[in-house]
Every structure is written in structure tokens, then in C-alpha cells.
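Incident review: delayed structure delivery

Summary: a single-chain prediction request sat in the queue longer than the usual turnaround. Root cause was a stuck worker, restarted by the on-call engineer. No data loss occurred. The affected request and its eventual output are reproduced below so the record is complete for anyone auditing the incident later.

Affected input:
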Amino acid sequence: MVAVTAGKAGVGMTAQAHDTITPGTAARPVRRASADVIQLTRRDIDGLLLCGEHYGAPYDLLAAALRVPPGRLPAILRRWRRTGYVSTGRLGLGPGTGWPLPG
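Output delivered after worker restart:
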């Protein structure tokens, strides 16, 4: 720390010297406290209720009910799986299916 006097005589102000960052060593961004918490949207709740009411839902029906393109559905299901809300798999020759986990 470097002590600096400014203004009226006898009043001291403190300034801190900052370290310089060398190229190639970027600081890591601060992670928010709720990073592991999923924030459910109305769409998430509707999809989870559909899976629960029917004991599972095929991907094509789920994508249509959520009004999302079929290519977007795997990311939504990964998020639900990661938080433990659903499990997914293929039951027979048809499209994949998502079903709710107990608990």
C-alpha cells in the first residue's frame, strides 16, 4: 500500500497499488452461488407434467407439446436429466422417450 496525502494537511488517504496482469493469465470469472440450481420455466413445468401424467412421453410428442423444434429437445432433456427430474432412453423402435424419476 502506498499512503497518499491530499486535500487538507494532515488528512491521509490510502491508495492501493494494483498488480499488473501478465498476458496469457486471465482471471477466472466469479461463479454465481446458484449456478447448480435449475430455474424452471413454464415450459419446463408443462413438459414435466406431461411426462408425469402419461408415465413418459416420446420425444416427438414432447417437442410438439413444448412448441420447440425437435433439435432443441435433447438440450432440454439433458438439463432435466442433470438435475434428476427425468430419465431418458429408447423403448422399442420408435423415438426416444423421457419419463419422470420418482422422488
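Verification: Strands lie at 2-5, 12-15, 57-58, 86-90, 96-100.
Action items: add queue-age alerting; document worker restart procedure.
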